[in-house]
Amino acid sequence: MTKTNDRIEKRVLLRAPRARVWTALTNAAEFGTWFGIKLEGAFVAGASTRGKLTISGYEHLTIEVQVEKIEPDRYFSYRWHPYALDPKVDYSKEPTTLVEFRLEEAADGTDLTIIESGFDRIPAERRAEAFRMNDGGWTAQIKNIEKHVSRA
User: Fold this and answer.
1) What is the span of the domain harbouring residue 145?
2) Best CA proximity match to 67, nearest among 37, 32, 92, 42
């Protein structure tokens, strides 16, 4: 896969049934457990939900996600403001990136692809750092969901 500064793509084989992975992704409370956020509401297509991060050192931050699509057992997507960590900055006027989760059956479990795109539209002064931090963030989140869905 060619690396660009507009798109992050990560793939992982999760050794869990697709239904289990789907629940981990689309049940807001369960998503929050592995992702590190306490969301205030459910994931509903066309609606926003927000919540406080529970990751050590980031508890002061509130993240908002706008759910785009939910196609049961195969596709879930939302928009958000990437690496929006400065509480003094109003990110609401900035474009968002699109985060997509794609699930496919695999012989040993479920193939999960995570794509975040749209970094080219983020203001130039913070684009490279947002891309770098989210690239590393998704690497860590893959490990988190891997651990989460493999628990009995």
Assistant:
1) 7-150
2) 42
